[in-house]
Amino acid sequence: MIRSKLLIGALEICNLPELGISDLKIRIDTGAQTSSLHVDNIKSVKRKGKPWVTFDIHPNLYNVDETVKAEAPLKDVRWVKSSNGTRQQRYVIETLFQIGNREWPIQITLTDRSDMTYLMLLGREGMKDHVLVDPHETFICGPESEPV
């Protein structure tokens, strides 16, 4: 069965329910390979002998005092070339991503995006075969979005 793709704009709103985040404004970037999320206070910890990371998320761009503490199993550590051309090593987690009426697991790198307008960037790997992007539209993917 061929599954229809969800039409999304250059900016959208998503949920990361496993991290306790809802209504997060994100930037869609087909030029970026990986997805990234702005976090603070990243710490590597062990849970039952397995590597995890703990971190703080500021889900409200306009209220940096609002913080959600989160943790996730560590999926990987990889080198990523940032938008300014520098390479940095980042922790990678996998979490459930919800947009419109769809959800799927995505890998996200954790980094400092405090100098960026949007706290999360959805890259090509996170989009996979789930979406089509209309770069001229924004916030078209509401809860009742129809696939195309």
UniProtKB/TrEMBL annotation:
InterPro entries per record: Asp_endopeptidase (IPR008503), Peptidase_aspartic_dom_sf (IPR021109)
Swiss-Prot/TrEMBL GO biological process terms: proteolysis
Keywords assigned: Hydrolase, Protease
Domain Retropepsin-like aspartic endopeptidase: 8-141
Pfam families in alphabetical order: Zn_protease (PF05618)
Top-rank taxon, per record: Bacteria
GO molecular function, one term: peptidase activity
Entry-linked PANTHER family: ATP-DEPENDENT ZINC PROTEASE DOMAIN-CONTAINING PROTEIN-RELATED, ZN_PROTEASE DOMAIN-CONTAINING PROTEIN
Protein name: ATP-dependent zinc protease
Organism in which the protein naturally occurs: Catenovulum sediminis
Lineage: Bacteria, Pseudomonadati, Pseudomonadota, Gammaproteobacteria, Alteromonadales
